[in-house]
């Protein structure tokens, strides 16, 4: 039987075949590396974007700070108006304002709020929430008081209370005290350059005047009297000391840095 002799015909040489296989291997490795690199690039860009967004929010706070004997008129992005009393501050976030109408406040301020979604005033001693109204907030040195001039105001501190026009709420002895108030005019009298105190501890009155007048007032009394009174901010210091001490028959003495009030 005659043997058949097979002569296979290769279309490619072994060198060409090996070259193709090597190219496939290197191409696959390169694609994996490329995909890995793209993933890392995506995560890096996402991290940078997140940092930029957080930074934008954190550094988009607008702050107003009034000095002694100074009031500041503020118009918020929604058209709401605020008058800051002396030595008071107000801040809000410009980026988040369209989402949340929220301000932080210390000291005293009068608000005329445009109608819209909830408007919140956060202070150290309590918070106020409204939809559209006019009200005055005082929050400093542990004293917290809210007076409603129109509409309705929700006040939250140690408890929650809702007050209407001509009503006030004050935080005393770790509870909220509601009271009716006779409103004089359509805005607080301090805007017209008056000091006004209603049954306020004399020690607090002295502290406020000392801070605003930038003088030292020493109060040496056994009892912390409750003071009620009103006087112009422009009168002399001697007259102020006389006005706040005379209802209690207290004595006044000038010192190098201010005054001493004693029994």
Quick description:
By secondary structure, this protein is an alpha+beta fold.
Q: Which spans have pLDDT < 50 for at least 5 consecutive residues?
A: none
Overall 3D form: elongated
CATH class division of the largest domain: Mainly Beta
Radius of gyration: 35 Å
Number of helices: 3
Beta-strand content estimate? 35-45%
Q: Count the beta strands.
A: 18
Q: Helical content, roughly?
A: 25-40%
Largest sheet: 13 strands, mixed
Give the N-terminus to C-terminus distance in angstroms. Answer: 143 Å
Helix/strand class: alpha+beta
Mean pLDDT: 86
CATH architecture of the largest domain: Sandwich
Q: Order of SSEs, N→C? A: HEEEEEEEEEEEEEEHEEHEE
Number of domains: 3
Identify the notable features of this structure and list them briefly.
3 domains, three-stranded mixed β-sheet, Phage tail protein beta-alpha-beta fold, 263 residues, 13-stranded mixed β-sheet, 18 strands, 3 helices, Jelly Rolls, alpha+beta
């Amino acid at each position: 039987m005659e043997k058949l002799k097979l002569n296979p015909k290769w279309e490619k040489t072994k060198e060409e075949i090996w070259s193709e296989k090597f190219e496939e291997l290197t191409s696959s490795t390169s694609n994996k590396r490329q995909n890995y690199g793209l993933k890392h690039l995506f995560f890096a860009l996402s991290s940078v974007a997140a940092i930029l967004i957080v930074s934008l929010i954190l550094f988009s706070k607008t702050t107003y700070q009034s000095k002694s004997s100074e009031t500041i008129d503020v118009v918020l992005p929604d058209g709401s108006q605020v008058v800051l009393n002396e030595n008071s501050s107000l801040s809000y976030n410009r980026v988040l304002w369209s989402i949340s109408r929220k301000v932080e406040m210390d000291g005293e301020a009068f608000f005329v709020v445009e109608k819209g979604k909830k408007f919140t005033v956060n202070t150290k001693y309590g918070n106020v929430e409204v939809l559209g109204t006019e009200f005055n907030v005082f929050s400093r040195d542990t004293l917290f008081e809210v007076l409603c001039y129109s509409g309705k105001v929700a006040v939250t501190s140690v408890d929650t209370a809702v007050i209407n026009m001509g009503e006030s709420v004050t935080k005393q002895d770790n509870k909220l005290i509601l009271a009716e108030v006779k409103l004089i005019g359509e805005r607080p009298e301090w805007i017209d350059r008056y000091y006004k105190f209603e049954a306020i501890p004399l020690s607090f009155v002295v502290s406020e005047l000392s801070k605003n007048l930038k003088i030292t007032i020493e109060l040496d009394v056994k009892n912390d009297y409750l003071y009620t009174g009103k006087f112009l901010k422009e009168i002399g210091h001697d007259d102020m000391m006389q006005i706040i001490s005379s209802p209690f028959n207290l004595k006044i003495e000038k010192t190098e840095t201010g005054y001493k009030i004693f029994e």
